[in-house]
Write a structure and sequence with these properties.
single chain, mainly beta, Methylamine Dehydrogenase, Chain H, four-stranded antiparallel beta sheet, 24 strands
């Protein structure tokens, strides 16, 4: 069943088909289960929500509020646990493979905060200029961080020895990032540059694909050739970009009838 009369600003999904949805008008988190979009429960979080992440293996969701809180909600509980952060956190990503850490981009504070999720506390931080998003390789050993500036930068950061290993300069940012399933490509959707940039980690090659509008969330799908889907926010459109032939290129688009703040991919096969 579709959700109606709901302003969704953030969403995430796990492999079990549990979907966490943030409703802007109510400052509320709701958890649903696919394929019937069955409502299971939810809470009011007491602040404007910026982002949400669903734990891959259970019914626990983690979210950020603009006033600087990380909260944890497990389906069936009455209230969320909270942890104070820097003000205006923007993006939360769980670090694989065990998903016990949250890496939180705080652009107003020029820092990535690293929080332990199940014994809540700030464990560490990475200082970086105006970070907008962070994503990981499949094993969690490498993080990719988007940084906004006169010339935008995507950094590769080694999470084991805590050092930056390489970077590329593309567009301006802020960026939304995704890493391909085989860890070969990084996609950076550029909101100011109206493009999605690709970084081939195997040979340092880069490409830029025009979107014709403001780039938003980006996700790689399963399968080959590599395909990613990019939200073009001001056009209420999702574009399909395939990495094949001489360069990545747009192969299809989906026009939506409503304003889209976020989207997730639900794929049945691992």
């Amino acid at each position: 069943m579709p959700l109606t009369n709901v302003a969704v600003i953030a969403a995430d999904i796990n492999a079990s088909g549990y979907v966490a949805v943030v409703e802007a008008s109510a400052d509320a988190l709701r958890i649903y289960r696919l394929p019937r979009l069955e409502f299971l429960g939810g809470i009011h979080v007491g602040g404007t929500v910026e982002d949400v992440a669903m734990h891959p293996n259970n019914t626990t969701a983690f979210g950020l509020t603009r006033n600087g809180n990380l909260w944890r909600y497990t389906l069936g509980s009455d209230t969320p646990d909270t942890l104070g952060l820097r003000l205006f956190p923007h993006r939360i990503t769980l670090r694989p493979p065990d998903d016990t850490q949250a890496w939180i981009a705080c652009p107003a504070s020029n820092v990535i905060q690293i929080a332990d999720l199940f014994s809540p506390g700030i464990r560490d931080s990475v200082v970086i200029h105006v970070p907008s998003d962070v994503q990981f390789s499949a094993n969690g050993h490498l993080a990719y961080i988007g940084s906004k500036g006169d010339s935008g930068t995507v950094f590769e950061y080694n999470t084991d020895d805590r050092r930056f290993s390489r970077s590329i300069r593309v567009g301006t940012g802020p960026f939304e990032l995704a890493v391909s399933r085989d860890d070969r490509y990084v996609a950076a959707a550029d909101s100011a540059g109206h493009a999605v940039h690709f970084w081939d980690l195997s040979n340092e090659q880069t490409w830029s694909v025009p979107l014709g509008g403001v780039g938003g969330r980006v996700h790689f799908a399963q399968g080959t050739p590599p395909v990613c889907f990019v939200l073009v926010r001001n056009l209420s459109m999702v574009k399909r970009v395939e990495i094949s032939g001489a360069a990545p290129h747009v192969t299809d688009s989906l026009q939506l009838e409503f304003t889209v703040g976020d989207f997730v991919l639900w794929e049945n096969a691992p």
